[in-house]
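This part of the workshop introduces the protein records we will be handling. The question running through the whole workshop is how a given chain folds. To make this concrete, we reproduce a full record directly below:
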Amino acid sequence: MNNPSMKKYNSFSFLLLIFLTLFYVSVFAQNTQDLALADEYYEQGEYEKAIQYYEKIAKKNPSASYIYANYLDAMLRLEQLKDAEKYIERCLKDRPLDPKINIDYAKLFLQKREDKKANRHFEEYINSIKSNSHLARVTARVLAHEGFYEYAEKMYLQAQKNTQENYDMDLGLLYLAMGKPKKMVEQFLILLKTQPNDAPYVQHLLQSRLSEDEEWDMVEPMLYEAIQKYPNNEVFSEMLVWYFLQRKNFMMAFTQAKALDRRNKSEGVKIMEIGMLAYNNEEWKSAMTIFGHLTENYKGRFIYGQAKHFLMESKEEYIKHQFPIDKEQIKSLVNDYQESLTEIGWNPSTAKSARNMALLQAFYLNQKDIAINTLNKITEIRGVPHQLLSQVKLDLGDIYVLKNEPWEATLLYSQVEKTEKETPLGYSAKLKNAKLSYFNGDFKLAKAHLDILKLATSREIANDAMDLSILIQDNTGLDSSETAMKEYAAIDLLIFQQQYEDALLAYNKILSHFENHSLTDEIYWKEAIILQKMGRFEEAAEKLKTVLKINPTDIFGDDANFLLGKIYEENLNNTQKAEEYYKKQLVDYAGSMYVVEARKRIRKLRGEVIN
């Protein structure tokens, strides 16, 4: 049975629903339009017009968060401080704990020069949320972002006391932002006491933020203090090892790592890592000491063979960098290699050591046939990686060049070119073939090889190819016979064969026969390098000065100037002259790759600690 009154009620309800829907759609549409206009005027800097539309929205929704930032900023820009204060207070009634609104309220007092009110509000607000870990962290970050660092610090410290949350990392980052490196380090060390796994991140932050020596210097005593305070917490000892490595003080890092290694029985892994860092930084003496320790104390362990190999390599590099090279030391080193091979055996793990020994025999002891036998023996070892076998072929080719048998050499180089296509070894083989053509005076064929290599993926090989190609291009075609260039190329072969006296005589011949030739500065530079290797340092210095006199801005200018500084510092013991040339490097060759090293050497000569 139909009820008329019920029908009327349902019809009324339906009409009311439609009316309300249309009303709210209309209001929403109006709000959207007002907001768009307000934002547009705000972006255009027409703040009075923007405020009119923001006010319309605020009357309908007093604490609308989507207008808060722009509306408040517009009022502040027009210095409508009373209206701004009323607006913030309305928003605070709805959101009393909102960090941004509370901080803006305090900032408003500061703008009105009511500092006491501002400070009181900061204090009251911090006190009201100190037990809320999430709000405390958000507030501290907003405070820091706004530049209120001291209140951010206070927020973290209050929250640290009143919650279970850890804010050590936050405090450390805050001190970093505040430019307080000492407090930053202190806080990070407090953090590491309970959270040692954060050490890598802390190290990253210290490495990227500590720039001055004074800042780095303060870290060491703080770490020692932490070690004494918490002797059973290894993270601080590990941090000290890391610290010394940043300072490139490999021996101190080694001393600390030894103690850790004994305690943890970690088989010398960290010590090996430090030895490799010393080796890669060309700190040969430190590397020798570290690898020597490993070979003495880890015999029979997995790390022994690797340590033995790098001990030999460190000795080799040290000897090779002492001019003139001592043949007796080379002989002693070859004996060490032979003893090592006898002890460990000829196997894939010792193949590199055998290769090193062969190169010493060939290039320093004139034992070319013995070296060839050594290299051939490597090729008979089963399991040697094919890349190493290809490298051995290149070495054999080099020795045949020493023996003046270029056809044997090019045969070996070409084999590697074929088997190692599009690899650094393949490119190296092609470069060696190009140099053979160059030594022989066949510049057209050499340049054809070199122009291909200029596109090699190996930057070092591409650069070498580019340099030699430019040398040929710049110095051929100057006379129909290309006599000077052919003589110069033949001297490069003498240098490769380490026939230094013959090379110097031949250079003098070119200089006397081809006065003011474009090769002149190249020749003086090469003479300086040869004389340095022969230990004739005074003569080397004079040749370098000639390079600088002829053309100080040419390609060899910065190289010659820096090498002069090194020779005066390391070989002639004239620190005053050395510093003079290093300073010149900073002024006359400011874009040089040696500038950073020159600056370090100046500071070292003055007795400063170098990071």
Q: What stands out?
A: The first helix runs from residue 4 to 43.
